[in-house]
């Protein structure tokens, strides 16, 4: 579907070869007609061929319940089409207009402590509100009927960042829908009482009507209730997504449907691997959170998005040309960052590079958020960088439609474990699931090792080394799958607080890490979380956050590192059990990216995995590979602020880099793309 879509984005030159999509959210309702014409001219200058229109246009399109105003949007669609620009048309349902919330305040979300989330910002609607749904689907139908045959329409953009502000709603609508969801999951109250462990604290339910979302309570709400509410909330929005999608498919079955995910730091409410199958192609929004691992995090998120998309291409629907407006301090990007950040997403499978937004707003909460056309206008560094990127993306047209070439190392990222491991009343409140996974990823980048970030829906057997950090929730089936993986010669690495609970968040008894105890050949009697600032020394490296009191129970276990200090001094800290040609390793403390880079070589060696990069470039360059039937596309990303030579690489240089004395040289923060024939 993506290829068909991309082949429609041929601009005014008529060349039907698929090309990468390039563009932005476009909010013409904030500007006058004269500006629209100028916009299209500048879009052409920048090489833009796709814009997302109408995302926050509900109040403009439907000024009152039975009043519709499409004239302005018709004009915008016509103008864009005449300019050779395709439209990813929003269903416009993201933010309900004041007339709707005034007439129906019962669509407003309610917080855990019972406060109403009032209108005034955006996305103030309950995912489970039947009233909201009726009004939203009416709008979706109108939009689809109106633009079904418009030649500018190339894709549908459902709502916007579903769940960004309203993932958790504790209203009465949510309570009713949660009960229905629980009935479907458990069938009987007996099963629910067992799963929720309601023998504890006198919580036994005798009627479905007694069940509630985990609203503000006197102490820690029931953990399984909390976990189920997270699952339910993700499912409720998924169900809403399907409702919009079904209307669109009924009216325009041939137009692909997407919605923009938020695979990035800080967003964990939506179980995207579970949503991905509901849409025709995956889209993602990503914003850099400045900090020491910021570009590693960008790469990690793009890589995980590719994993969610099953290795197929996806769309980068939003990122920023420079500063955002919603961080405590909003840092401008440095020269080169705009291009490198965009191309890093392409390296990991993005077939579209889009920004929020086309023209920087003059008013409203996002007026300090960067855009493709900044306040300064087109005579600006940002617009020149935007135009330069447009030219680079044109050169990368051959990459469009190519898939990711699987790496030999996989990092498992699992939503259930993310949700459950960070719940309250645990050994530590400091555990950060995503950070642990990111640290492993950073360590692999530092060693020049390519890895795929994958979900538990992926065929894990294809990886030679599988790293599953904090794999906390391990149902029996997953334990069996991992055991078979190792027995068949795979090398598994897991960490502290893994294998501890089943899908109901019940402890696997008999010693930790219950579900993986035999596979790892160790037994943990007690967890030893560390206080803030406390550290523990290992044979090699320093641990924080967590330690375990480990006993080795299997003769095939080798201790790779001991604790040298702390209450478990002299005991094993890192272990590995050999199982035929495979192995299962356990890391019981938080080593951080640097510490893991010290440990990883022996784990990689066991799996026979080596860097594909020239020695001098390891750690300084990230390599990602896409491929199609004829070619491999090597993306070489300079992670540093210095030039990096890459001797010994051959291929046709599609973009970036310079050839000096037979070596490809990357300028600071530059990305080069080499095409090689597939063997
Ligand atoms: C996204 C959102 C956009 C815009 C952007 C600013 O979350 O979809 O509408 O608000 O953030 O960074």
Highlighted features:
Immunoglobulin-like; Rossmann fold; binds beta-D-galactopyranose; 18 helices; 9-stranded parallel sheet; 28 strands; alpha/beta; TIM Barrel; 3 domains; 679 residues
Question: Can you walk through the features of this model?
Answer:
The chain is an alpha/beta fold and 679 residues long. It has 3 domains: 2-104 and 130-167 and 254-401, Glycosidases (TIM Barrel, Alpha-Beta Barrel); 409-607, 3-Layer(aba) Sandwich (Rossmann fold), CATH 3.40.50.880; 619-677, Immunoglobulin-like (Sandwich), CATH 2.60.40. It is built from 18 helices and 28 strands. The strands form 6 sheets. Strands 5-4-3-2-1-9-8-7-6 form a 9-stranded parallel β-sheet. A 7-stranded mixed β-sheet has the order 12-11-13-14-21-20-19, with helices on both faces. Strands 10-22-23-28-25 form a 5-stranded antiparallel β-sheet, with helices on one face. Strand 6 (260-261), helix 10 and strand 7 form a beta-alpha-beta unit. The radius of gyration is 26 Å and the shape is globular. Beta-D-galactopyranose (GAL) is lined by residues 160-161, 164, 285, 287, 318, 324, 356, 366, 369.
């Amino acid at each position: 579907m993506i290829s068909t879509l991309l082949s429609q984005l041929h601009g005014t030159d008529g060349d039907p070869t698929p090309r990468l999509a390039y563009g932005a959210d476009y909010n013409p309702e904030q500007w006058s007609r004269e500006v629209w014409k100028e916009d299209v001219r500048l879009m052409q200058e920048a090489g833009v061929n796709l814009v997302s229109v109408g995302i926050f246009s509900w109040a403009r399109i439907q000024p009152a319940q039975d009043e519709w105003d499409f004239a302005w949007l018709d004009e915008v669609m016509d103008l864009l089409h005449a300019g050779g620009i395709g439209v990813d048309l929003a269903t416009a349902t993201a933010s309900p207009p004041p007339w709707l919330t005034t007439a129906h305040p019962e669509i407003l979300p309610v917080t855990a402590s019972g406060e109403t989330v009032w209108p005034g910002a955006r996305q103030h609607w309950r995912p489970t509100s039947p009233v909201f749904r009726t009004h939203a689907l009416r709008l979706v139908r109108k939009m689809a009927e109106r633009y079904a045959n418009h030649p500018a329409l190339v894709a549908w953009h459902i709502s916007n960042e579903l769940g960004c502000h309203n993932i958790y709603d504790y209203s009465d609508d949510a309570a009713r829908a949660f009960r229905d969801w629980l009935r479907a999951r458990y069938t009987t109250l007996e099963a629910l009482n067992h799963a929720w462990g309601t023998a504890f604290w006198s919580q036994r339910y005798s009627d479905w009507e007694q069940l509630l979302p985990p609203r503000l309570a006197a102490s820690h709400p029931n953990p399984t209730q909390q976990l189920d509410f997270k699952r339910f909330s993700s499912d409720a929005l998924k169900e809403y997504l399907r409702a919009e999608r079904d209307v669109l498919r009924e009216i325009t079955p041939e137009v692909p449907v997407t919605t923009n995910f938020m695979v990035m730091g800080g967003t964990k409410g939506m179980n995207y691997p579970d949503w991905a199958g509901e849409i025709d192609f995956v889209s993602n929004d990503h914003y850099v959170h400045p900090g020491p691992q910021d570009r590693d995090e960008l790469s990690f998120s793009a890589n995980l998005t590719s994993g969610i998309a099953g290795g197929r291409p996806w769309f980068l629907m939003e990122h920023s040309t420079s500063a955002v407006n919603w961080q405590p301090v909003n840092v401008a990007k440095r020269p080169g960052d705009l291009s490198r950040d965009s191309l890093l997403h392409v390296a990991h499978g993005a077939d579209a590079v889009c920004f929020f937004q086309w023209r920087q707003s003059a008013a409203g909460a996002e007026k300090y958020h960067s855009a493709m056309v900044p306040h300064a206008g087109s005579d600006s560094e940002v617009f020149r960088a935007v135009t330069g990127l447009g030219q680079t993306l044109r050169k990368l047209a051959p990459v469009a439609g190519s898939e990711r070439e699987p790496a030999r190392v996989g990092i498992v990222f699992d939503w259930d474990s993310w949700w459950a491991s960070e719940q309250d009343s645990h050994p530590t409140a400091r555990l950060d699931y995503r950070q642990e996974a990111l640290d492993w990823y950073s360590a692999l980048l530092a060693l020049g090792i390519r890895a795929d970030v994958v979900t538990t829906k992926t065929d894990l057997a294809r990886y030679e080394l599988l790293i599953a950090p904090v794999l906390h929730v391990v149902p029996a089936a997953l334990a069996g799958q991992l055991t078979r993986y190792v027995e068949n010669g795979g090398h598994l690495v897991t960490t502290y607080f893994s294998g501890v609970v089943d899908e109901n968040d019940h402890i696997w008894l008999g010693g930790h890490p219950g579900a993986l105890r035999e596979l790892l050949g160790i037994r943990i009697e007690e967890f030893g979380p560390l206080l803030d600032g406390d550290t523990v020394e290992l044979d090699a490296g320093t641990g924080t956050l967590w330690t375990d009191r480990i006993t080795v129970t299997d003769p095939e276990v080798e201790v790779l590192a001991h604790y040298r200090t702390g209450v478990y001094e002299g005991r094993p800290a890192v272990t590995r059990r050999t199982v035929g040609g495979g192995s299962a390793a356990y890391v019981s403390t938080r080593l951080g990216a640097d510490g893991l880079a010290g440990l990883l070589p022996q784990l990689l060696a066991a799996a026979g995995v080596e860097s594909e990069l020239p020695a001098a470039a390891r750690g300084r360059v990230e390599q990602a590979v896409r491929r199609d039937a004829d070619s491999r596309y090597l993306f070489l990303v300079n992670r540093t602020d210095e030039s990096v030579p890459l001797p010994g690489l051959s291929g046709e240089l599609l973009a970036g880099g310079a050839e000096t004395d037979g070596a490809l040289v990357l300028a600071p923060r530059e990305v080069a793309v080499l095409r090689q024939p597939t063997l």
